[in-house]
Amino acid sequence: MQLKRWYGAIDVHSGGQPLRIITGGLPPLAGATLLEKGESFREHYDMARRLLLAEPRGHYGMTGAVVTAPMTEGAKLGLLFLNQQGQEAISGTGIFGVMTAWLATGQLSPEEAAAGLRVDCPAGSVKAMVKAGKDQDIDSVTVQSVPSLAYAGPIMVCLQGSEVRVDIAYSGEFYAVVDISSLWRESDDTVPLAWLREWASTVRKEVEARHSLKHPLPGWKGGVYGVFFYRKATLLALAVPKRRTYRSTTVFGGDGGQVDRSPGGTGICAHLAVLQKRGLLHPGEEVLYRGISGGEANGSITAGTTAYGCQAVLPQITGDACVLGFMNFVLDPSDPFAEGFTIY
Fold first, then answer.
1. For 15, phi and psi rounded to 5 degrees?
2. Whole-angstrom Cα distance, residue 306 to residue 324?
3. Claim: this prediction has a pTM higher than 0.85
4. In what helix (H) or strand (E) does residue 105 lie, and over which residues does it extend?
5. What average pLDDT is seen over the chain?
6. Residues β-bridged to residue 107
7. What is the distance between the alpha carbons of residues 342 and 55, in angstroms, rounded to a whole number?
8. Is the dihedral of CA 153, 155, 157, 162 positive or negative?
9. Of 334, 258, 337, 257, nearest to 57 (Cα)?
10. Crossing angle between the packed helical segments 266-277 and 92-104, to the nearest 10 degrees
């Protein structure tokens, strides 16, 4: 038997959210911009995404990343972000994972990681900084993300007989930001994933029926990419006084309904923009988020700005990631699931 394909990968997780970084088996992607490289991947190599993220090699919660050459002056690298439906313009947890893996494997020096480096994403360039402790153990990754803005809302949407507040924000992708305090009791550690997917589908349909969300990236799919659910966490706040605290998770990937195990990355940035517009958050104030897995992340606003002709904020998020393993995948020519399958 002669194996048909081989792929190398580094598996990591950030706040419980799995990420598979493809490190071998792909040629350099054609294109002068990340958008062109993303289109090249979709046209010629999307089979690798399906093979590596879907079952039986992955699972429906899996996400992925492809590291490319930098596209802008001063950047260290570029990133394409993969999910079960295709690609996303930016992923905070994806950046946490890649920075952690690259420092752990010696592809970044501790000095440049601590000082901060530019990372090109389809949604724009961001700055990432890695804080390491004793023996170069990685404590956290901080990302100064793309400008984010509260786009529209609020609107009220009925979920399980309760009216919930929904704001629409842009943070590299469009998010519906949903307060489910009336549905997610403080004593509940988690919400059933089926409920989250059902609620997200309802919210997405309501938002898109009322607002035409055209993505600013040329050729990029518009509409609601993610639904960010949150509620105030009173008990968590007792442990961290004088800090706004939330329980949170995101259902992302458009209609696909992947559930983020982490507190969120880009979804947190969307929520920060909403908080700022509501007058509940000022530059420099830190917000603590805890996801459904128990992982935590912090968010803040560093400054106000303008983007796309609107008032916006510059969000900063801090989280962590852990390396899980170094993977080698092959394709047996007789494998009936050459492109994987998904069950959710």
1. 60, 25
2. 39
3. yes
4. none
5. 92
6. none
7. 6
8. positive
9. 337
10. 130
pLDDT value at position 324? 97
Please write the tens of the pLDDT for every residue from 23-66.
999 999 999 999 999 999 999 999 999 999 999 999 999 999 99
Contacts of 252 (CB under 8 A, 6+ apart): 83, 88, 225, 226, 227, 258, 260, 267
Q: Is 163 exposed, middle or buried (0-12, 13-18, 19+ CB in 10 A)?
A: exposed
Tokens of 8: 């190398």
Beta strands in 69-219 (DSSP E): 75-82, 87-88, 117-121, 124-132, 138-144, 149-159, 162-170, 174-179
Residue 238 has phi, psi (to 5 degrees) of -65, -30
Structural contact between residues 142 and 158, judged by C-beta atoms closer than 8 angstroms: no
Token digits of residue 296:
């935590």
Nearest in space to 88 (alpha carbons), one of 33, 42, 135: 42
Which regions of the chain are under pLDDT 50? none
Token pair of 142 as six digits: 């901080």
Contacts of 188 (CB under 8 A, 6+ apart): none
Q: At 260, list the tokens.
A: 């983020």
Please provide the size of the chain in residues: 344
Tokens for 11?
A: 């598996």
Give residue 110's Cα distance to chain centre: 24
Single out the residue of 124, 162, 182, 153 nearest to residue 274, CA to CA: 153
Q: Which residue, 339, 38, 82, 69, is CA-closest to 218?
A: 38
Question: In whole angstroms, how far apart are CA 306 and each of 10, 150, 196, 275, 313?
Answer: 37, 12, 33, 17, 7
Amino acid at 121: C
